[in-house]
Each structure stands twice: as structure tokens, then as C-alpha cells.
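Annex B. Sample input.
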Amino acid sequence: MPEASKDLEAVARQLGRPPRPFRVAARCAFGVPSVIENERSRNMPTSFWITCPSLEKAISRLESAGGVRTAGAELGEETVEEIHAHHLVRYGTRVAGMGGPGGHVKCLHAFTALHISGAIPNPVAEWTLERLGNPYPKGACCTTKASQT
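Annex B, continued. Sample output.
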């Protein structure tokens, strides 16, 4: 099976639905897509999505434990605003479609996807990843067909 077909199949399993047009922006240690970049022609505030189920769940746990507020407080408005400004210049929106000025963190997933993809390395993602340790499963990919049964 060609690589593009394998990626399409893997991302569909990860999302639980057929994906819209995308490109693989980053892969996990198992070579499977972990971050995708959505097609730019779509009117969507979030260009990069984390698709790896293990990484997505680990970030969600951190967010639900107050990670969004804590990251913003520890890193400071100025640092976060610099990331938003860079994203606005590059993609025409603030990170995760965040409205208005002010250095606020809305979604750790969005900042982390930008970082892992290499599009905009940033301190919010570094803060997030530092707290996650290794969010990937040991020994096997969480997206393989066998793990989905």
C-alpha cells in the first residue's frame, strides 16, 4: 500500500472518521502520523491537529487538571502573546482561533501540535511536553489495527 494511503487510513482510525484534506506534519517513533496540517483553503482556526490518540489523551488529562491556566500563569502573557503574534503573521489567525489581544492559552493541544510539527516551536508546548514525560505507549503504536480491536 502506498505511504499516502497508509497515512490516510491511520489518520481516519485516529480521528474515528474520514479526514478532510491534510498533510502529515509529524510522525511518532513508530512512523505513524501524530500531527497533521489541515488544508489551508478551509476556513479553520486550527491549522495543526494532534492525531495520535495517546498524545491527545495525555494532553487532555493535563488540561483537565488545570494545565491551561497553569501554563499561562507560569509562562506569562507576554510570552504567550509572542506565539499568537507569530501565528497570526504566518497563518492569519491566533493559535486555536483565540480572539482578541492578550496572551492567553486556550488549548495546549494546538500549541503542542505547532511545536511538534516544527511550524512554530514554542514555550507553551515545551511546558506541556515536559509535564507529559513520554506520552507514547511502549513497544507498540496506539494506532495499529491490532490495538483498535
